[in-house]
Specification:
Layout: E1 12-14, E2 19-24, E3 31-36, E4 44-46, E5 50-58, E6 62-65, E7 70-72, E8 78-82, E9 85-88, E10 91-98, E11 105-107, E12 116-117, E13 123-128, E14 137-143, E15 158-165, E16 167-172, E17 181-186, E18 191-194, E19 201-203, E20 209-215, H1 228-231, E21 234-235, E22 238-239
Antiparallel strand pairs: 1-18, 2-3, 3-10, 4-9, 5-8, 5-10, 6-7, 6-9, 8-11, 12-13, 13-14, 14-20, 15-18, 15-20, 16-17, 16-19, 21-22
Length: 252
């Protein structure tokens, strides 16, 4: 059962339903959110105006991509599809970064915990990494039991979905961060949005919680001057990244 809806300047929960859920097309990182499989098993079709990051909560949906790929997915799997796509069966969420060309990929199911240390005992893994520094990414965030997270903010929007377990998000009552703390329960399948600069913290009690988190941008990742291929290509012991005369100057 879905908890009561919640919305303030810091945190917004999204109804369990099919079709368009959130329209952030006017954000500095234009993004839209779509649900499928909550009310019917009719296929959801999305157009080519962006790259679609998806996560399967239940069932075995069939993913069809414009590149001709057809993949049957299972719970806990994720995908990244640029351009036209459709999905039928199962249940999940799709987050579309508008006007961005990503790289097709399918992966998962998610692991028991993240590969990277995060904050306050939490861990995370990059599921879809930025191909270039600054690109969007999709993450798996794991909360063990008894987590009491430090209140924090993010410099861009976040879209999340609870993959499994349960917990709560605590946000301040007032826009400026003052007032009473408000606790929002989180259950599997719950989609939420954290607006840019929203003050929040996550808590767990006797259950773990796993969240799939979309970031529309990144401040880490490879770039043209720093990536494993160019750094680990050596000419007389010198990395190609330090030899300007042999570096590729432009891409077609």
């Amino acid at each position: 059962m879905q908890p009561p809806p919640f919305q303030n300047r810091h945190f917004v929960t999204v109804p369990f339903q099919d079709g368009p859920l959130v329209d952030l097309a006017d954000d500095s990182h234009p993004t839209q959110v779509t649900g499928w499989g909550h009310q019917s098993q009719n296929p959801i079709t999305l157009n080519n105006n962006g790259t679609h990051y998806g996560f399967v909560v239940e069932g075995n949906p069939q993913l069809n991509a414009a590149n001709g790929q057809t993949v049957t997915l299972c719970p806990g799997m994720h995908f990244c599809v640029p351009g036209d796509m459709s999905i039928e069966g199962g249940k999940g969420v799709i987050i579309t970064r508008l006007d961005f060309q990503g790289v097709f990929s399918v992966g998962g199911p998610i692991e028991e915990q993240g590969r990277l240390r995060y904050i306050d005992g939490c861990s995370d893994s990059l599921l879809v990494h930025p191909s270039l520094k600054g690109d969007p990414c999709l993450n798996h965030l794991h909360f063990p039991t008894q987590i009491d997270q430090t209140r924090h903010t993010h410099p861009s929007i976040r879209v999340g979905i609870v993959a499994r377990g349960q917990g709560r998000c605590v946000v301040p009552e007032n826009e400026d961060g003052s007032g009473e703390e408000v606790s929002i329960p989180l259950v599997p399948g719950q989609v939420f949005v954290i607006p840019t600069g929203g003050q929040h913290s996550f808590f767990t009690d006797d259950h773990t919680m796993d969240v799939i988190a979309y970031h529309p941008d990144s401040d880490t990742g490879p770039d043209h001057d720093d990536h494993p291929m160019v750094n680990r290509t050596l000419v007389d012991g010198v990395a190609a990244s330090n030899i300007d005369e042999i570096r590729t100057q432009e891409l077609p």
